[in-house]
Design brief:
alpha/beta, TIM Barrel, three-stranded parallel β-sheet, 10 strands
């Protein structure tokens, strides 16, 4: 019995000593700094225009399988509510015109989706970077704006992929897997290919036909008349066109007065370009030239 009691006493003493050691170590463990929480997203810049349209909604588009949008050609995905408008601009970037469009959009604190031409992107990458830096979505409108419906599939594929590569390289960052066919012609084999590449196809709900017009007033009248008829929609404009850039400030004022609301489309995932077409674009940028003399030594003003 004495042995048993001695054992119990010994065990109790051991546990007491262990508890004391743990208590002494506890402050050291508690002093370990907690993991740094993820940084909060930066708040959107405050809109300085009290009468701005602003963005009513931002939607995320999952382009898996190549969904089609725009009721002129695709009837499945109707995501806009009454009076909601998505603004899209084709054929840029272009000097003077694209910056003027960006200025008008910024004044109303709204975002749009741009479908640049690949060649234009290689000529004016600094302008396309401005589009990206302003927070707009950037898709692809082919390399050289050829009608893919009149091309062999492999040639059409090259047009599409070089456009995507050129735009991505010009921006120097992520771009959207959004594609718009030139002249809105949709050859079935290319549509299938876009689905395999998980690139969304964007037609339009209403084409402004601004490229047929020669005054800002006609552009404004065209868009407003079609919106009054349809009540909402994806609107196709061209930042390549001077009269469209000139029309935009007043057009946005009229959209505001008419109770229309702007929706911004963002891609769920960025596009993944293909290395072979990246290389084709690089080769285009490295065409041989006769010499590297500066323009000032080649062309000079002699009478002004």
């Amino acid at each position: 019995m004495r042995v048993a009691v001695a054992s119990v006493v010994a065990i109790s003493a051991f546990l007491a000593a262990l508890g004391s050691a743990q208590a002494q170590n506890a402050p050291a463990r508690a002093a370990t700094p907690p993991a740094t929480p993820p940084a909060a997203a930066a708040p959107a810049p405050k809109c300085e225009n009290p009468n701005a349209l602003g963005i009513t909604r931002t939607v995320e588009v999952d382009t898996t399988g190549g969904p089609g949008f725009g009721f002129e050609h695709f009837k499945q995905h109707d995501f806009l509510r009454a009076n909601e408008v998505v603004l899209t601009f084709d054929d840029g970037p272009w000097p003077n015109n694209t910056p003027a469009v960006l200025k008008a959009l910024a004044a109303h604190c709204i975002k749009a989706t741009f479908f640049p031409i690949g060649k234009h992107a290689t000529w004016y990458p600094e302008i396309l970077k401005q589009v990206a830096e302003a927070g707009h979505s950037i898709g692809n409108h082919t390399w050289s704006h050829k009608n893919l419906d009149k091309m062999k599939f492999e040639d059409a594929k090259t047009e599409l992929e070089m456009g995507a590569s050129a735009v991505h390289m010009a921006v120097g960052g992520p771009t959207a897997p959004f594609f718009r066919f030139p002249v809105l012609k949709h050859p079935p084999q290319v549509v299938t290919y876009l689905g395999e590449r998980n690139i969304g196809i964007f037609s339009t709900d209403m084409d402004s036909f601004d490229f047929t017009m020669r005054t800002p007033e006609r552009v404004i009248a065209s868009v407003m008349k079609k919106l009054e008829k349809h009540g909402k929609g994806i609107v196709l404009l061209h930042d390549f066109q001077k009269h469209t850039a000139e029309a935009l400030p007043e057009l946005l004022d009229k959209l505001k007065a008419g109770g229309y609301k702007i929706v911004h489309m963002k891609a769920k995932e960025p596009i993944k370009t293909l290395a072979e077409y990246d290389e084709l674009v690089r080769k285009q940028e490295k065409l041989p030239i006769a010499n590297s003399r500066p323009t000032s030594s080649v062309v000079r003003t002699i009478v002004e």
